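#onboarding

Welcome to the new folks! Below is a worked example of what a typical request in this channel looks like: someone posts a single protein sequence, and someone else replies with the predicted structure as tokens. Don't worry about understanding the tokens yet, we'll cover that in week two.

Example request:
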Amino acid sequence: MEILIEFNGQNYTAVYNQYSGYFEIDLIAPNEGGIYNINITGKDALGNTIEELKKLQVLTIIEEKVTTDNVVAYFLDRFTFEIKDVIDLQDYEINVDEETNSKSNFMVMKKINAGDKDFIFINENDEISYMGIIDSPVNENGEKKYSINAKYITNLFDRNIILNNEELISTTGVEDFIKYTIEKEFTNSTDILLNIDYLDIEILTHTKINKSVDNVENGIYNFHTYMTNCTQNYNIVYNFEVVNGRLKMTIEKQEQEAQLIDANVTDVANYTEVFETNVIAKVVVKTSNNVFNYFLLNDRTTTTDINDENRAIGLIKTVYTEKDEDAEQTALNEFKSNSYEHLVQFDINIKTKLFDISKWKIGTPIKIKTKNNIIIDSYISSISKQKSSKFYAIKTGNIRIDFIDKIKKELK
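Example response:
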């Protein structure tokens, strides 16, 4: 007798087991669980055909990650990248906000074997959730607990340096210029003793920009400020991970698809909007030799024609850049702020199943469906979290209109 089986688009032939007395078959299970049909066709020795339809329930095992409240801080030496101490955290507030360079705060119950400018890595559920640079650990009034402030890991490059090889920005890419500068000034400089020799750098994109480095005085500029400006203006992002005991940094232009955030779902809380009503309609760019005028059009493109009938109405902003060839890009950077008409902030449940927040970081593009069902294009500019909270606090936007934030950025 022959038994034929059709299951999930595949055909099988059952084999008779003389020991069990049954026809048996090994089926390839589908990827998803559910109720599936099995078509059975049998032929006996006389040639009679028997057909039967059976139902088969397929179960799937869902691997669910076990989470705990245990959070561990690893402290690493800034010169050797070796672990100096490992301590359980009692409390913390993580802030990753490079627009204002906000600090994170961590509370431990003993003096740490680490000092100023050493690394602090936070491990939650066997994953590194934060990398920072220690900024002056403090003992509170003789108590046993210690308060540790830290800045995000990109502050590793917070140094004033001499401008070199600026032409890479327009000829090869801004990512190439950043990599070149890190290698020349931080990892492979002529001062071998102070090089960061545990850092590896990989660039994944090459974005050519006709814009020189801003805020250069007498050939000197702050490199960390420049890196932050590249995130704000050109969507250049920096990712860090530990690979084989070394620190790996990747540099790339953010090209991922925007995450859609619906402000009306239950996983989003404390949603607030601040409307930006001022629109820059004209940018006057003064260079060392000339003055250029750029005008915004109603379709959000720009022109140099003062008589264009499609010009938008709004404010005038005057800015300075040294070189004539940088004037257009300088104006475009100012007009870009008009694309962000809202400052939006909200809290989102850490355990949400609606959004893949594991991929969220500074620079991640998002589309926000507001309470009024309007879609706003923006990106994540700040992520913060407290240990006791079940929510991440998210801020979006390109240019903050909160005066306190601007003061904080200057102070920090």
